[in-house]
Amino acid sequence: MPSPPTEDAFRAASTANVATMSRDELAEHLVHLRIVRSWSDAAEITANRRARELAAAGAAGSAEAAHVRAGQRSEREARAVTDRADVCAQMPGFESALAAGSVSAGHLDAIARATAKLDDTGRARLAASADNYLDQATRSNVDAFERAMRKEAAAINAATAGDTSAEELVSQRRRSNVKRWIDKVTGMHHTLLELDPLRDAEIWTAIDAQLATDRAADGNANTAWSELRVQSVVNAINSSGSPERRPEVNVLVSFERLVDQASVRGVCETIDGIALPVSTVRRLCCDADVFPTVLGADGEALDVGRTRRTATRSQRRALAAMHRSCVHPDCSIGFDACRIHHVRFWTEHHGPSDLDNLIPLCERHHHAVHDGGWGLTMTPDRVATWTRPDGEKHHSGTTIDRTDGKGSRTPQLA
Fold first, then answer.
1. Cβ contact 207:236 at 8 Å
2. Which of 62, 228, 287, 302 has the highest CB neighbour count under 10 A?
3. Alpha helices (H) in 180-335, listed in sequence order
């Protein structure tokens, strides 16, 4: 039976009049719905466990079939329920937290995807820290928790796998493939590239460079972002390449990871947060330019004041080292799909093109700040305050979402 808090949520959700709710009342209603949904997801896990017992005894078909037929789930959804049940078997605290509404099914899915990449030893090591992960899940949204679990799984793999990190990349390359098919209903053509992180970074660096060129071209000002991005992919493939500018592959790695192969602390990843074997980065450093991104280090000037309007390439590297995505607190659009925004506007406020006045914003939130009435300010230590069009504060907090694992906000080397 539902616990008393869950019963209260059921009662409140079933009697709510959404049409007359204020903003705060609507937020409370969504909390009630979340609690009800989480309780239902936990109950479905219990049903999955019983369905598996019946199947093992020969008294029923598979658990997935029961979810598909009686629960009207898709096969993919039914497999997800089974995966959640497996997580709860290893980490019982998550099942209780799910039933109470403290975490969501999405948090369990993040763990399931992380454990799928581990061997039995790695799964046992992950389960041993279940209490820590549960505490993190109750304080994190699903996207942030999934990023953390991906990083944790990569660290466990690095510590427990017999293969070296170089062999890991070789294995990833062997698993890479290309698939192409046509949807017979819609007539749409599909191309799926499954790539190791390094070659994926190479491809998308070229596409993003093409996108920047296409976005600035005459006639594209009013082209929808999704359409422009598709055309830029085609243009990048058709392009013979420009000898004047080679695309860069930006990799962020902390100094500790770079010099100590046994270390699993700090970052070693592409700018969108995909982990790379540190041995691959060491090899790249032998024949590639290395761009330091320690803020305040000697080298190219990061603050260019009013001498130019757009961010320099050095500034973009520095921003990418701090931000994986758009800095709006509810957005996860990747850095490469963002515009570099002047917090104090270049034209109206005479804001400089200095690093402490620049942040990445996706198209939607860039438009919200310029044309939607949203307010945005930022302190020199990159704490941003968002104000809604009605004048009330929406959020205040650091914009930096990448650390080196030791409390330092910015990776030391890129």
1. yes
2. 302
3. 197-216, 225-238, 255-259, 278-286, 313-322
CB-neighbour burial class of residue 195 (10 A; exposed 0-12, middle 13-18, buried 19+) = middle
- Please check whether residue 243 lies inside any domain of the structure: no
Residue 236 has pLDDT above 60, yes or no: yes
Structure confidence by residue, pLDDT tens digits, 361-379? 988 898 888 878 899 999 9
| Percent with pLDDT over 90 in the chain | 30
- pLDDT band per the 50, 70, 90 thresholds, residue 404: very low
pTM: predicted TM-score of the whole model, two decimal places = 0.60
Domain boundary among 238, 265, 294: 238
Nearest to 376 by CA among 363, 393, 364: 393
Do 28 and 95 lie in one domain? The reply is yes
Whose CA is closest to 34, among 128, 129, 101, 90?
A: 101
Residue 175 falls inside a structural domain: no
> Is-contact 389 373, C-beta < 8 A?
yes
Shared-domain flag, residues 127 and 217: no
